[in-house]
Amino acid sequence: MQEHHLKPYEGLLVVSLEQAVAAPLASCHFAQGGARVIKIEREGEGDFARKYDGAVKGTASYFAWANHGKESLCLDIKKPGDTALLDRLLAKADIFIQNLAPGAIDRAGFGSETLRQKYPRLITCDISGYGEAGAYCEMKAYDFLVQCESGLVAVNGAPGHPGRIGVSVCDIGASMNAIIGLQKALIARGITGKGSAVKLSLFDTAADWMTVPLLHTVYAGNAPQPVGLHHPSIAPYGGFTTSDGQILAISIQNEREWVKLCAEVFERPDLAKDPLFCNAAARVRNRLDTDAMVAAYFAARTRAEMEARLRAASIAFGAVNSVADFAAHPQLRRAPVTLEDGQEAELVAPPVRHSFEPDQPRLGRVPAVGQHSAAIRAEFG
């Protein structure tokens, strides 16, 4: 007898007028949980994220990651017939997600307030760049630009060289916030019987993450500066090169760990009492001396020697891996996916695991552009 795994979102219909990353990742979460997700795309080219690259056997990496398990419906919402079809879909939908350009959804007649008046149980989710009001509300807001505007790049990178975070963190974070907001709205609907609006922006997402640097700037007048692999207020904390050219990162969080590092790794317990290094404030104040001392020790020993010593002393460490190293990491979990042309690939397995789900999940198929258009038009026609 085949084991049945609980799918908590089974029975939900999610309609998503989406593009790029933030909204597709959010709706993909619901597809993974068993919801029926209808992705609305432009006729012909579809979601422009389909053309970002062809890295996964001809399929775009972003698209495969954010769109498996969905149905693809091509619509032109400027055409009366397609507008009517979208209305019929939304009349039966539980959730409507959209991340179109500012104002576009309202001009098309599908603004969230209007929709919830027509369909009181519908939950709407608007993902924007900067929100619906304010001087920036109509600005285009790609992930990199929001990283810049929010100050994220100012606290990343190396000294004198602020840097973009190497993955689309504002898009990804916005999708996570959308999921959190939608789950809260589903619980609220279970209590009240009514849908509600979920609104969030990439900028607000980044701003939330920038709370600590913001507080340091506003209340202490001391904005954190980019420090590469190091930490603005902890030392030693960072990457140090071993004699065989590998980089190991260590993170000393408290005085107990510092004493153990000196005594059990460096075999120099006296260093823990040296005025230059005797407490956290002294080590930060004398960061150059602290880091030089640690770096010299690492430089005289191989990665294997250092890992053995650090592990024995219970000092937190990690290798500064390349992406190729990461791809071979023993802790990396993968899940199979079928691409739109039928080829097989592997994505990273979903990070959240539930006891009611299989240990080895299989992801849904990545849809071709308009693959389900005919069937959906017939069903809702």
TrEMBL record:
UniProt keyword annotation of Transferase present: yes
Keywords: Plasmid, Transferase
GO MF terms, alphabetically ordered: CoA-transferase activity
Short name of any one Pfam family annotated for the protein: CoA_transf_3
Nucleotide-binding keyword on record: no
Organism superkingdom: Bacteria
Descriptive protein name: CoA transferase
Source organism of this protein record: Gemmobacter fulvus
